[in-house]
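Aim 2, interim progress: modelling of the tetrahydrodeoxyuridine-bound target.
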Amino acid sequence: MTKEELIAEAFKAMKNSYAPYSRYHVGACIETTDGKKFWGANIENASYGATNCAERSAVFAAYSNGYRKDTIKALAIVSDGPRIAAPCGICRQVLSELLNEDTPIYLTNGKEEVTSCMKELLPMQFSQEDVIR
Ligand code: THU
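Predicted structure of the complex, ligand included:
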């Protein structure tokens, strides 16, 4: 799949966003090494705190179906906001454990586009190595 195709899939997922509170819609799509796709959207909650972000939804879907960091090829995260959809701090922590540090992450709002990776988005992360000794 090309980067453009993966981004198009993330925009499809964004249509399933449930965001009655922020009205900020986010979609994500993961491509696996065997060519499967896992979609995610932000799903909000009246408690606010129980909201799940799109990229966490997508990576949890991939993991729930047996995929792991070495079988995840790329992630696209898109939004309808005025700027690129840069992952929030909680998502950076989660993605830093569940993706390889150099797995490409495409961020776009349809106007601007950036390719990044977890090494760049969360340097000096708190990780498995800190707690498993
Ligand atoms: N959101 C995401 O889905 N991903 C991010 O990385 C940033 C924030 C969602 C959470 C909430 O539903 C809305 O965007 C506003 O914060």
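The CA atoms of residues 97 and 127 lie 7 Å apart. The helical segments are 3-14, 54-64, 89-98, 118-121, 128-131.
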